[in-house]
Design goal:
Radius of gyration: 19 Å
Helix content: over 70%
Number of helices: 6
Largest sheet: none
Length: 165
């Protein structure tokens, strides 16, 4: 019986470590998930705003709103598959992704803002796509340690892991 108890303690200890520690791979995966939603929203917002002839501010605001929408939607899709109700899925998405998306959007849009002429580039300009791609890469690099920190504390994307089977 002592042997079984020892295995049980080891198993509990291992679960405790997993719940409160985060590997760089786990953080990168969470950030990549966030980046996917942000990139969809950013590109769609920029395309729509530019196609409608909007100025920089309304186009950027639309892109940010859509980045949050698609980021949350991707998380909710996975959580809903676990069989939870819509309200719970929304709460999980908000808890899991808000900080990550906010950091990503701040870095992404901040990079484009300070990049000479990037704010005035059009969809047909290489600068538009290059600055967007580079800004998303920088946002990924900056946001990954944020996600590692939050996951390591059982927050952020760690909340979503409770719903994965």
């Amino acid at each position: 019986m002592d042997h079984d108890h020892t295995l049980h303690e080891h198993h509990e200890h291992h679960e405790h470590e997993d719940a409160h520690g985060a590997s760089w791979a786990m953080a990168a995966q969470a950030t990549l998930h966030c980046l996917t939603g942000c990139a969809i929203g950013e590109v769609l917002g920029m395309v729509v705003g530019t196609a409608l002839g909007w100025g920089n501010l309304p186009t950027t605001l639309l892109a940010i709103v859509l980045a949050f929408f698609f980021g949350y939607s991707l998380t909710m899709r996975g959580v809903l598959r676990a069989g939870v109700d819509l309200r719970t899925a929304l709460r999980v998405a908000l808890a899991a992704d808000t900080l990550s998306i906010a950091v990503m959007e701040l870095i992404d849009n901040g990079t484009i803002l300070v990049w000479p002429a990037a704010m005035d580039a059009h969809l047909g300009d290489a600068l538009f796509w290059i600055s967007l791609a580079v800004s998303l890469v920088i946002a990924f690099v900056v946001t990954t340690p944020v996600n590692k920190w939050t996951i390591g504390r059982g927050k952020g994307h760690a909340v979503v892991h409770r719903y994965h089977h």
